[in-house]
Design goal:
It comes from Candidatus Obscuribacter phosphatis. The chain has about 500 residues and is of the alpha/beta class. The protein has 17 helices and 19 strands. The structure holds adenosine-5'-diphosphate.
Length: about 500
């Protein structure tokens, strides 16, 4: 079996080191002295204990970030030096790619092939992409009135709080650090309590790269009544970037009213993945699988509602279930594993409870529908598909965040056009067709921040990502994320004699 053996575990040293908070360039215990466990979801074993930061630790981190922003060398550094630090961090992440991939798989459960060939390289590319932006930020001169010389300055926002989820721990860090650092902000990051480890290892690499003290601070810990809430309420944080559940997003917005800090949100989704009869069916079957089962369905843009045109429904389902039966489920450290465990017991229970809800609503189970009996340990759920789903059912409206696909048949263009947008979310959608006109019509019709045509889950650091409706606001990636992390100042100079 190709499971990574104990002796090949490159992250053994890291796991045995103390897991402290990164504040002002130093590793420190939480003020309370508290720690919490982080667990391998494939084995249910405790990987290590991690410092449990709280309000006092966030206060310390914000002070350090404020000092680094106002008076530290960071402010005076040329943008080229800033870019070089970011490139160095990217190089160090690449150098430690195998170790970081193992850390991510152990902490999150995802297959090692995904950590190693998706999460780590995309993290590296995101830092490289934004390193390029550091030297390209510009203001403008405006010919408004000849009596005045008018120009704009593009300035960093200041101290930014970043609260990230557990589904792509390392990649979400990169999406948030990349533009924040390129624009010259300082950071207080709170990783998710389920997956704090890769951020701590990248924190070590950031110190090795030479980021000045206080520019990057990491406070591991919990959300409600703890470090997360302390960040969202903080009076001296200028902006909060959040990725997570919609109900947490609402709390973040409410908390932002303390000092009216800027907020950007990337929340949930219930993406329509629409297959027309004229599509390349085999490609669409593969796309449906990637759309819902990648990362165990723990993806905010998962294609969780599969709309199939009625006349291809049966053929499509036969091909889909045949392929899904072959997906190998097991410990993510095994390089043959395609589906790992859910991140936690809580998530496993949540997914299983949605499976029961779907059964109760009258949807038909085409495959899966339970935890695999042969896997005695770990928070696994079999890849699950329901057919005969009606778009109004809870299974079609609520975010399951697991490997559960709802298949909804449709009869014509008008029918699916209406149903696709009948959701409170609007993060993404996809359409499979050989008809160019139909593809573009749908791309413009779907109320979502990303539409994939004849593909699914394609990403690039240069292409913006974010939500319509209750999937949040603000766009990450691309130049649009630079907007989130900069302020524009207009300067008027009186030129009159
Ligand atoms: P999930 O339920 O899938 O874990 P959450 O939205 O609860 O998603 O978590 C995403 C991130 O938000 C995590 O880092 C978590 O600790 C943090 N978080 C949770 N609740 C709050 C809160 N009330 N205030 C600030 N951060 C929070």
């Amino acid at each position: 079996m190709a499971v990574v053996q104990e002796k090949e575990l490159l992250c053994k040293d890291f796991l045995s080191r103390p897991k402290q908070l990164l504040i002002d360039g130093k590793w420190v215990d939480a003020v309370s002295g508290k720690t919490f466990e982080t667990v391998n979801p494939a084995t249910e074993e405790v990987l290590c204990r991690v410092a449990e930061g709280g309000k006092e630790d966030v206060d310390k981190a914000v002070k350090a970030a404020r000092r680094a922003f106002e008076v530290g060398p960071w402010r005076k550094m040329s943008t080229a030096e800033r870019a070089r630090l970011m490139l160095k961090l990217a190089d160090l992440i690449e150098k430690h790619a195998d170790e970081l991939a193992q850390i991510e798989t152990l902490d999150n459960g995802k297959p090692i092939t995904e950590s190693r060939y998706v999460d780590v390289p995309q993290t590296v590319e995101t830092f490289r992409y934004y390193a390029g932006w550091a030297t390209k930020l510009e203001g403008e001169t405006i010919n408004a009135n000849s009596n005045f010389f008018t120009y704009t300055l593009r300035e960093p926002v200041g101290v930014v709080g970043q609260i990230i989820p557990w589904n792509f721990p390392m990649l979400m860090l990169a999406w948030k650090w990349g533009p924040a650092l390129a624009a010259g902000n300082t950071i207080v990051l709170k990783p998710a309590e389920q997956t704090p480890l890769s951020a701590l290892r990248i924190g070590e690499l950031a110190l090795e790269a030479g980021f000045p003290e206080g520019v990057i601070n990491i406070v591991t810990g919990f959300g409600a009544n703890s470090a997360g809430e302390a960040i969202s309420h903080h009076m001296d944080i200028d902006k909060v970037a959040f990725t997570g559940e919609d109900k947490t997003g609402k709390l973040i917005v409410q908390a932002s009213t303390t000092n009216l800090k800027r907020v950007s949100l990337e929340l949930g989704g219930k993406a329509p993945n629409i297959v027309f009869a004229d599509a390349d069916i085999d490609a669409a079957v593969k796309g449906a699988i990637t759309g819902i089962f990648f990362n165990q369905g723990q993806v905010c843009c998962a294609g969780s509602r599969l709309f199939l045109e009625k006349n291809i429904h049966d053929e499509f389902m036969a091909k889909l279930t045949e392929r899904v039966a072959k997906l190998r489920q097991g410990d993510g450290l095994d390089d043959k594993t395609r589906i790992g465990p859910q991140v936690s017991k809580e998530q496993q229970e949540r997914v299983l409870s949605y499976i029961n809800i779907a059964k109760g609503e009258g949807a038909s189970l085409a495959c899966g529908g339970e935890a695999p009996a042969e896997l005695k340990k770990g928070y696994f759920v079999k890849p699950t598909i329901f057919t005969g789903v009606n778009n109004d059912m809870r299974i079609a409206q609520e975010e399951v965040f697991g490997p559960v696909l709802a298949v909804i048949p449709f009869s014509n263009m008008e029918d699916v056009a209406e149903q696709a947008n009948k959701t409170t979310f609007g993060l993404s959608g996809a359409v499979w067709t050989r008809d160019v006109k139909k593809a573009h019509k749908f791309a413009s019709h779907i109320k979502a921040g990303t539409v994939w045509v004849n593909c699914y889950n394609v990403f690039d650091p240069a292409v913006p990502f974010g939500g319509y409706k209750m999937s949040g606001y603000g766009r990450e990636l691309g130049k649009h994320s630079i907007e989130l992390y900069t302020n524009i100042k207009s300067v008027w100079v009186n030129m009159q004699d």
